[in-house]
Design goal:
heterotrimer, A: alpha/beta, Rossmann fold, six-stranded mixed beta sheet, four-stranded antiparallel beta sheet, globular, B: mainly alpha, two-stranded antiparallel ribbon, two-stranded antiparallel sheet, 14 helices, 5% strand
């Protein structure tokens, strides 16, 4: 069963079309990795899914409901959650308060303060600390915990390793399997190809706003993926809108 | 992709605009010799309204400083006329000297006011105006709290009215030209970048505080000149509470919002409109002010560009362009794909 | 000794200033809106109390029960219907909207009620006082006012620190967009914050009217300055600072009143400008830009 289905999505800022003719589906329990270079349209896609940006055309279906025009905060209440790029914690609140705000939807599920503290012990240690006074890695752990607190069915992770020390990134990636064990679907947006390939069930590559490659990491050759990522051998990119869609 | 990008300023119509303005100024200058004085006397008010609106627009529309305390300088300009008039200058000379002195006084005041930002700056300027009023009325020589008259003024009413008219017109022309020249200079670009993003402007090496201070001082001088015109027209100040009254700020804001903030032409349009509204409706009691308040809110929320902005958006008719226009001829029909850095 | 009396009067007056400033502080802290109509809305609160008294014959104290919630609802609606739209348009628009309101209220009041002062009777508390010694006597009504202020400030402090909605308000002040990503409609949070701001300013407006012997249409032009000065003297972002700021302003005014009845306003303003010059972040405030 698919949790999220995107059909012919077209979105962007003003006259700029950042993603176009995009279709894909994320299955329940799947870790779906979205890769692509800077400017490929990944962030626009995530914003369209959570609704902080309205789409130009196309349909977004979440758990059988068409949510294309549903307000952003209602999508969160319906079970989508985003860990935003740059973490964006509430800096004047304590870590624990950040988690409590994360639970605002009141959705029932496996995640609460106790289970978050078990998953991410560092968060428990920091719980009384002001969220504005954390290191980047600590912030990222809190941001993931905060999103999980809403007990989502689908969680979107936007560039969670960006700007963090490699050791911290290892720890965060180590927690991903535990998060998935709860039956959660994940869309992971990354620029780091090799790390992503290790954890993803399915990988999709965005180039200039188009989906140029989609498949299971085991079915794809390294060459295919790097070509899609960097756009080699795709002669007509940017000028026609169908590209090399899968 | 063959895009043709041109950067334009001052298209031909702007030349027509300048020529037209010059003709208009000349016509206005000789008007008191041709038209009946009862008509031209009324225009004095129009001129000082244009001055006030342009000054408020300079502050808010170009430098992002929202003041509700410009009445401080209107009041000081008016009272300055008494001070220099008592020392032997003619009322008109006194007005000019007072405006310059107020400009000097505005420098230290700006250091206080600039401690505050945004809305707090707005109320801070109001407190400063109140403080100045409370200080002025402590001087018996300035009539205490009761106002006073100008001692030495031109007794011949026809001559007096003509001089007053010329002074008011001169002040308005001076204010408009100052705005125009200022905004067309490099200074104007610095100013607009401050309005759009003060932090970014600062990091680009623009002297934010200095630039704002220059505008603040010019704004103060313009308002002082308008204040001295108001004082000279009625040969005195009837009530310090009125000349230092916050309602002047209300009128300035109304004129600028209605006319169109951030343009040279907008405040002039707003002043014209307010001039007629005031002429025909001010007798209908305070409901008229209530309606001005309602219109100000509606204009803010639904027509933020004001009358001139709407006209300009429709016909692109800037007569006094102070910004550059980028004209892109894109020969490619395909949509432009996002290639700028994603946020 | 005469100063001791002034100081105690000033502290009591400061309580009222602090209560009137709390709403301004909250609206700025959570919504980043500086409400230029703050004083006029206080006056409106006073008039609503007057209308309530006129129509029901109840005492001024009971009118709080009607006016304070009513103003809360008005605040919620003003935020949702007018200010929310303005907030999307930049920094200028909310100021202009509140300025528009500040023109509408007093002029409508003059048209509807004339320029005269309308009575807000204090009742038996008006004349009773506590005699501390031969020089110092403390009026019961000002003491009650101070008590209400302290209770309100503590309650608001606790509300922001401990309740779910208080947390949302602080979160919205940090990043309203992310608050939406937590499934919370920040517009509702803003509306409630403004509702609370209006409720507290209504309370202050009625108490101010009672203290002055009544309300008149243009009172707000003065009270907005007091409220604003209180916030800045105390320091932005600190509710207890607001209480301190109110007391400093109150003491400055009452001591100046000892010298001349014309001086309190001027000296109050000068103390404010002095704080601005020498302690621009206020007495207890953290450095705040914008």
């Amino acid at each position: 069963m698919s949790v999220l289905e995107i059909k012919n999505l077209r979105a962007g800022y003003g006259d700029l079309v950042a993603v176009s003719d995009l279709s894909f589906a994320v299955q329940q329990g799947e870790l779906f990795a979205l890769v692509g270079a800077n400017g490929a349209g990944k962030s626009t896609l995530l914003k369209s899914i959570v609704g902080s940006m309205s789409v130009k055309s196309g349909t977004i279906i979440f758990k059988d409901d068409d949510i294309t025009t549903v307000a952003d905060y209602k999508r969160i209440q319906a079970g989508i959650s985003l860990v935003p790029e740059g973490r964006r914690l509430f800096t004047s609140l304590s870590v624990e308060e950040n988690l409590l705000v994360g639970a605002a939807t009141g959705r029932k599920g496996p995640w609460n303060l106790k289970s978050i503290f078990e998953l991410l012990p560092i968060v428990e240690k920091l719980k009384d600390r002001n969220a504005g006074r954390l290191s980047g890695g600590e912030q990222q752990a809190v941001a993931i915990g905060r999103s999980l607190m809403s007990n989502p069915d689908l969680i979107l992770l936007d560039e969670i390793s960006l700007g963090l020390a490699p050791i911290v990134v290892e720890q965060i990636y180590a927690a991903l399997p535990d998060i998935r064990n709860e039956g959660l679907s994940i869309i992971l947006v990354e620029q780091d190809l090799s790390r992503t390939l290790k954890v993803a069930d399915k990988i999709a590559c965005l180039l200039e706003g188009h989906l140029v490659l989609e498949g299971r990491p085991s079915d794809l050759t390294h060459q295919q993926i790097t070509d899609a990522y960097f756009g080699h051998s795709i002669a007509s990119f940017g000028t026609s809108s169908n590209g090399a869609n899968s | 992709m063959s895009s043709n990008i041109q950067i334009l300023r001052s298209p031909k119509k702007a030349a027509y605009g300048s020529a037209g303005a010059l003709l208009l100024f000349v016509a206005l200058a000789i008007a008191p010799k041709i038209l009946d004085q009862s008509i031209t006397n009324e225009w004095v008010k129009l001129f000082y309204l244009v001055t006030l609106a342009s000054m408020w627009n300079l502050l808010a529309g170009y430098a992002g400083m929202i003041s509700v305390g410009q009445q401080a300088f209107i009041g000081l300009g008016a009272y300055g006329v008494f001070v220099f008039n008592d020392h032997g200058f003619s009322a008109y000379e006194s007005g000019i000297i007072a405006s310059i002195v107020v400009g000097v006084v505005a420098v230290p005041i700006s250091f206080l006011a600039f401690r505050l930002r945004g809305g707090y700056f707005a109320i801070g300027t109001w407190v400063i105006a109140e403080t100045l009023r409370l200080i002025i009325i402590r001087f018996p020589s300035l009539g205490s709290g009761k106002g006073r008259n100008i001692q030495n003024y031109t007794r011949d009413p026809i001559l007096r009215n003509t001089y007053t008219y010329w002074m008011a017109l001169g002040v308005a022309i001076f204010a408009l030209s100052a705005c125009f020249i200022l905004l067309r200079s490099r200074f104007g670009l610095a100013l607009q970048s401050i309005r759009d993003n003060e932090v970014a402007a600062n990091s680009l090496g623009i002297k934010v505080d200095f630039t704002k201070r220059v505008v603040y001082v010019i704004g103060a001088m313009g308002c002082a000149a308008a204040g001295s015109v108001i004082c000279i027209q009625s040969i005195g100040v009837a009530s310090p509470n009125a000349i230092f009254g916050v309602s002047y700020s209300a009128f300035m804001i109304f004129m600028v919002l209605i006319g169109g903030i951030g343009t040279i032409e907008g405040p002039v349009m707003g002043a014209l409109l307010y001039f007629f509204v005031d002429k025909y409706f001010s007798q209908s009691g305070l409901w008229y002010l209530v309606i001005l308040g309602v219109i100000a809110i509606i204009a803010t929320l639904f027509f933020p560009k004001g009358i001139w902005g709407e006209i300009n958006a429709r016909w692109n008719l800037s007569l006094f362009p102070v910004s550059y226009q980028v004209k892109i001829e894109n020969n490619q029909n395909d949509s432009i794909h996002l290639s700028k850095k994603e946020k | 000794m005469i100063y001791l009396n002034s100081i105690s009067q000033g502290i009591l007056l400061g309580g009222l200033f602090a209560l009137s400033a709390v709403g301004l502080s909250l609206a700025f802290g959570v919504l980043r809106i500086v409400n230029l109509a703050h004083g006029d809305l206080m006056t409106l609160g006073g008039y609503l109390a007057f209308i309530t008294i006129e129509h029901t014959g109840m005492s001024t104290w009971y009118s709080f029960l009607i006016v304070v919630p009513a103003m809360g609802v008005i605040g919620y609606l003003v935020q949702r219907l007018l200010l929310q739209r303005a907030l999307r348009m930049g920094e200028l628009a909310p100021l202009m909207v509140t300025f528009g309101i500040s023109i509408i209220i007093p002029n409508s009041l003059v048209q509807l009620f004339t320029n005269n002062t309308e009575q807000l009777p204090v009742g038996s508390l008006a004349t009773s006082s506590i005699q501390v010694n031969s020089q110092i006597s403390i009026g019961t009504f000002p003491l009650v006012t101070l008590g209400i202020s302290i209770v309100m400030i503590s309650a608001l402090q606790q509300y922001l620190a401990r309740t779910k909605m208080g947390r949302y308000m602080r979160a919205a002040a940090d990043d309203s967009e992310v608050l939406r990503l937590m499934g919370v409609d920040h517009r509702r949070v803003y509306g409630i914050a403004m509702g609370i701001a209006f409720s507290t300013l209504a309370m202050a407006g009625i108490l101010f009217g009672m203290r002055q012997g009544g309300v008149s249409p243009y009172d707000g032009q003065l009270t907005v300055l007091f409220a604003f000065e209180t916030v800045i003297i105390g320091g932005l972002g600190s509710l207890w600072g607001t209480l301190l700021g109110g007391m400093v302003l109150g003491i400055a005014q009452t001591i100046a009143g000892q010298f001349s009845p014309e001086l309190p306003l001027l000296v109050g303003h000068l103390v404010f400008l002095g704080v601005l010059a020498f302690r621009p972040n206020g007495l207890l405030g953290k450095p705040v830009l914008r």
